[in-house]
Write a structure and sequence with these properties.
Blueprint: H1 4-41, H2 48-113, E1 118-121, E2 125-132, E3 139-146, E4 152-156, H3 167-174, E5 178-181, E6 185-188, E7 191-194, E8 198-200, E9 203-205, E10 216-221, E11 226-229, H4 234-238, E12 242-248, E13 251-254, E14 257-258, H5 263-267, E15 274-279, E16 285-290, H6 303-312, E17 317-320, E18 329-331, E19 334-335, E20 349-353
Antiparallel strand pairs: 1-2, 2-3, 3-16, 4-20, 5-18, 5-20, 6-7, 8-9, 10-11, 10-12, 13-14, 13-17, 15-16, 15-17, 18-19
């Protein structure tokens, strides 16, 4: 039998059980709710720390990318430098190979000429002086390599029509390193005028004159190459683009072959001091100046002898310039030949060479 006390306790238990159950549920559930709330409100994924972490990651990635790019650029620079070095080496070698035939050809020329007495070399020109003495005559050979076409020019007297001067005077007045006499002349009214067609600075002096009486023009074109021959019209000569030139007679060699010498020039005079100019196949020039004690035909060289000499030296084209007492060769301010007049003759045209 249940006592009143037991009945009260049982009633209290029944009455408070729901509250205790609710309290227990709250106690069990509340921590989870608080954790979810905190997680939702303060998640590091959206906070300053997360932003800093993201930026740090991006910077690290950028750093790795920059380092990789720098390494790639460095490799490219090294490859470029190696390629440039190789290409430079190829260019140098190609130039050396290209220059070998010219060097070999030049040594052949020097072997035929002998040992140079003097050498003048600059960025514009190379001059080599040789002595020639085949037995029947003697004189000098001047080999000229024009590195710059402007290193050779022609002077016309002292500047006024009919004026003349010695080759030494022309050399000293113009500051040239070397000089030779050029074309022929004719005296008129106490003045000395050049023969035939004469050109200086690309301009005709006294107009174009068709070749006659075996007279031939000889000079340089604008590229610094020797040109010459007989011309019946101005357009014929203009096609060669002459820069300067003078006139005398005759042509000695054409393409390495001796040409017939006009009868008058074989015997009048037979021998004489001579000045001739020619060119090699590489466009180097060769000047021969032969000594003689007079113009009577008993000293100096014949034109046939000079043809043979030039051909033996490998010259391609050659032209006779004024000779006799006009022949002169100046180098470094010194008269090298022995003028047959006993002194240098004043003439209107000179070929000059400049350092």
């Amino acid at each position: 039998m249940m006592t009143p006390v037991k009945r009260v306790n049982r009633f209290l238990l029944l009455a408070t059980a729901p509250f205790f159950g609710l309290l227990l549920c709250l106690m069990l559930v509340q921590p989870a709710l608080e954790l979810d709330l905190k997680t939702e409100l303060y998640s590091p994924a959206d906070g300053p720390l997360a932003e800093a972490a993201r930026l740090k990651g991006e910077l690290q990635t950028a750093g790795h990318t920059a380092a990789e790019t720098a390494r790639t650029i460095g490799d490219s620079v090294k490859l470029y430098n190696r390629t440039t070095a190789v290409m430079n080496g190829i260019v140098v070698q190609a130039k050396a190979q290209a220059g070998r035939p010219a060097s070999i050809y030049n040594r052949r020329i020097q072997t035929r000429l002998g040992w140079p007495l003097k050498i003048v070399d600059s960025q514009r020109i190379n001059l080599e002086l040789y002595r020639i003495n085949p037995g029947s005559y003697n004189g000098y050979a001047l080999k000229v390599k024009l590195k710059d076409p402007s290193a050779m020019a022609m002077s016309l007297g002292t500047g006024s029509p009919g004026s003349s001067e010695t080759t030494l005077q022309a050399v000293l007045r113009s500051g040239a390193v070397a000089g030779i006499n050029a074309g022929g002349f004719a005296d008129r009214s106490g003045k000395r005028y050049p023969l035939g067609t004469t050109m200086i600075g690309g301009q005709y002096v006294d107009g174009f004159q068709p070749s006659s009486k075996n007279l031939t023009f000889v000079g340089l074109n604008k590229k610094g190459r020797l040109i010459g021959g007989a011309f019946s019209s101005r357009s014929q000569l203009d096609r060669l683009q002459p820069s300067f030139g003078a006139t005398f007679v005759p042509v000695l060699l054409r393409g390495g072959v001796p040409l017939p010498i006009p009868e008058k020039w074989r015997t009048s005079p037979t021998r004489a001091p001579r000045t001739v100019i020619g060119n090699y196949k590489d466009d180097q020039l060769l000047v021969l100046v032969v000594n003689g004690y007079n113009e009577s035909g008993n000293s100096g060289a014949t034109l046939a002898e000079l043809q043979n000499k030039l051909q033996a030296l490998g010259v391609v084209d050659a032209y006779n310039l004024d000779g006799g007492g006009s022949s002169s060769l100046i180098l470094n301010g010194t008269v090298l030949n022995r003028p047959s007049d006993g002194r240098l003759r004043q003439v209107p045209t000179h070929f000059l060479f400049f350092k």
